[in-house]
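Late entry, evening session. Most of the bench is empty. Finally got around to the prediction I had been postponing all week. Sequence below, unchanged from the version circulated by S.P.
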Amino acid sequence: MEGLNLTSDVAIVGAGPVGCLTALAFARRGARILLLDANSSVGERLSGEWLHPAALQILESHGVKLPSAESYATGEGYVVFPDDGTEPITLKYPAGLKGRSCEHKSLVLALREAVESHPSIHFISSAQATQIEGNKLHFVDALQGSMKTVTAGQIVGADGRASWVRKQLGHPNGSTKVSLMAGILLEDAELPFEGFGHVVLGGPGPALVFRISPRFLRVCLDVPSRDYNSKAASAYLWNSYSSVLPPSLLPAFQEALQNRPILWAPNQFRSRAFYGQEGTALVGDAVGHFHPLTAVGLTLGFMDGECLARSQSFVEYRKERSALTHVPELLADSLYRVFTRQDKGTVALRSSIYRTWRENPSECERTMRILAGLETDVRQFRKAFLKMMRSAVPGILHHTLVPNQWRSMIASVKGFVEWFKWLRTSTEIPNDSRA
């Protein structure tokens, strides 16, 4: 592909993990790919580092070679540390399924090595897209110092939350800021449950801790936006989260806050409702995104790329992905709300969820099947959520038996009504799932 005017079957904007995987998926089907990325370097940043089983299977099917995980345990599931001081709750992936965690930089390098060695993929780094006109994509090749145009049968926006391609289609970002995420690297620390992601509750926001290499753990701390102060960040994080993190992590946590940089990223929400249009499709975070507590972003993005590559039309792609991604979005949204809200109705619901996970193995498996991409039926999600809500009712009604607690009961009922409203509106079938 030389000269100022190029032709390609598919032109992809964005060479992060999802863009690279999408390129590999199209190339497997015989397409010629032009892959563009404005960033020539792969620096450390706070982004996806946990791969659910479906994502790992997709990478393996394309021959992407991640760094060996034989020297550390990973990908077994999650352990939740409740905020009520009770024992941790183990949520394992269904039998036979396993995920994987690794440093984000290692994941990107492995995928870029795969695309750069593929004969059907032409990767141009330091390429800034400037305009889309029908099936023509204009961009600046900074390395050659020239303007170029590619004519492509399919243009794909894999350029993340602030997607330039999405804006070109007349759909601005539209994300709602939820909170901030502080990312910290811990060296030579032991996890209480090696091989599992640790969800620790009880701080200002949830904490997610998991191993990314034999020597390093990643700690992701959800920080309310109102509490952010760059000058006092280390002291705030220690004072706010050290009391809830497992004791085995505290020496390394303190050392990291004193001597390592803190990586910050905004936690945002945008429903996965807009997938682009015929000829110009979106994948991954360019479609939509939610709080990373459930770490489902990479998995959904990889599935987007696979689906788009095999679909016969944009409508087919949009319909399938709208139907299959709504439940993971609901799980991420509901768990973050349940784990962070402190109204009495939510506290009762949270206790019900803890109890259900402890006593009902089938509901534990259902939760992990959703994370693994195996459970996508909105009706089943609604049924399971209603079951947990019914289980929470006795915890609310007991206030009626306690003198002078009627105000507390009213507050609990009000919070519960809000959850019913959320469930009713959020479990409606999205418009984009219709033909």
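Two things to note before I forget:
Residues 170 and 299 are 26 Å apart (CA to CA).
The two ends are 37 Å apart (CA to CA).
Will write this up properly tomorrow.
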